[in-house]
């Protein structure tokens, strides 16, 4: 039975300790991480994996530190926001496995007796990465599902508010016009026909709102062209605002889910312009370049107090738009000034190619 050792470190332990920083640097290249906050958490992960391997080589048995779970749960809790998918961690973990094998292979060649110890180290590495990927995958799915439910709840709240504000109030106004029509008709007043016409106009507006809401509830086909989808939406809405739509860059660089979500966010921005801004002009701009998407929806309308609207809980879907953007690893910011218009900015990093490049 294998027991613990108290003698000098083996050549395998020495080599792994010497190469530790180099291996960590190569691991970072595999993940393509530039954000310092993200890397700080991932670095603690790989440091623990290598430390477990060194301990296993020393003790000649598989050792997995309890710190594994703590660090992994920390990573999983942030992975959705960072768009650090389990598949990416798995690919980089397999790459780390290859690097360790390559680094220690020459030691085993010079010291054949170290082969058995190497087996324990590799088993530790394999199991440690497997545990991490499993935990991150489970928690990633849970967090992602929770945030998706939050978005759906926000959409339902917006729908309920629009039904109340746009349909409920308008139907109430139509009934009021009918009451006035009855009063004027019984009195033989010419204004009766005007009230009936007012009622028809209000009900026509209600019908337009109902059609729009029903269109929102239908399943939308995937967006083939962001430029075409935005222009089609602008043309479908009866409004007085002149909208300039521009999509610059290669749309083929956008994964389909990015096009779909970005369209939904920009469509909601434009709806707010049409419904509330009373703007003469608006711009919807998308730039795809340098591994990111930058989008702006800006108008010259009446504007609003961003802080006051946020505190009131009636932010016209801005919180939901932020959630959608953050699920893609991006950020949405809103700036507005009363009588000077509103500007919504969206920045979303594009995913790296699906394959891992070993450096």
Q: Beta-sheet strand percentage?
A: 5-15%
Count of DSSP-assigned helices: 11
* Structure summary, number of beta strands: 5
Average pLDDT taken over every residue: 81
> What does the largest sheet look like?
5 strands, mixed
Characterize this entry briefly.
With 359 residues, the chain is an alpha+beta fold. The chain contains 11 helices and 5 strands; from the N terminus they run ααααααααβαββααββ.
Q: Care to describe what's here?
A:
This protein has two domains: 11-146; 223-359, Histidine kinase-like ATPase, C-terminal domain (Heat Shock Protein 90, 2-Layer Sandwich), CATH 3.30.565.10. By secondary structure, it is of the alpha+beta class. Helices cover 65% and strands 11% of the residues. Strands 1-2-3-5-4 form a five-stranded mixed β-sheet, with helices on one face. The chain has helices spanning 11-18, 20-31, 36-59, 67-82, 86-110, 115-186, 191-217, 226-236, 256-277, 306-312, 318-327, and strands at residues 242-249, 281-289, 292-299, 331-337, 341-349. It has eleven helices and five strands.
Task: Record the SSE blueprint.
Blueprint: H1 11-18, H2 20-31, H3 36-59, H4 67-82, H5 86-110, H6 115-186, H7 191-217, H8 226-236, E1 242-249, H9 256-277, E2 281-289, E3 292-299, H10 306-312, H11 318-327, E4 331-337, E5 341-349
Parallel strand pairs: 1-2
Antiparallel strand pairs: 2-3, 3-5, 4-5
Helix pairs in contact: 1-3, 1-5, 2-3, 2-5, 3-4, 3-6, 4-6, 5-6, 6-7, 6-11, 8-9, 9-11
